[in-house]
Amino acid sequence: MPLLERVTTLIRANLNDLIEKAENPEKLLKQLLLDMQNQFMQVKTQVAMSIADQHLLEKKQKENMNSQREWVRKAELALTRQDEALTRNALERSLVFENAALNFAQQVEEQSHHVELLRDAMHRLEQKITETKIKADLLIAQNRRAKLAQRAGVTTSAEFKNDLLFERAKNKVDESAAMAAGQLRVAALDPSRQLEAIDRESEVDRLLAELKQRSQRAIGPAS
User: Fold this and answer.
1) Model-level pTM?
2) Collapsed DSSP state (helix, strand, coil) of residue 223
3) What's the pLDDT tens digit per position in 52-67?
4) Residue 42 contacts residue 85 (beta carbons within 8 Å)
5) Which of 72, 104, 146, 201 places its Cα 20 to 30 Å from the Cα of 13?
């Protein structure tokens, strides 16, 4: 299978489906990462080689264009000497280089398109590698937490129920305390309660005055 087809297959891989169907998702993701990284290095190398080929084609195109201009210049020089045969010969040579330059120009265009395809595939594969690494790290972390929890036994149903009961009891106490505090605040603001408090205070003042009077009367005759 050609390189671009292999890379496209990896890019289009549905990670979620692969994980769900795999017996060992962690192992599958690790292997998939290795395949992607291997293909990425191959694409990266191919991009560099293709760019080098493109530069070589561009150089050949430029050389042929320069040769074409040079033979046109020679044809002009021959014409000034009124040597028509030499002029025609020079023009024919210029056409050879002109056609070669046009062919190289077409190859440069095709090679440039090929380089862009490879670059695009390389960038997309790089993104896919990042996505796969994230999923692999998450899956590995989840598996480790599950194994640690299983060994430590921290997620037993009895402990979970006890935690729930404790939390509910704590919430009840907090609710009762808050309700009592609220009732006290409401009672303190209740006018009828305030009036009762005033009446009680007045009654206490009256009883205190009577007590003082009795005390003074008792002390008076004795003196």
Assistant:
1) 0.58
2) coil
3) 999 999 999 999 999 9
4) no
5) 146
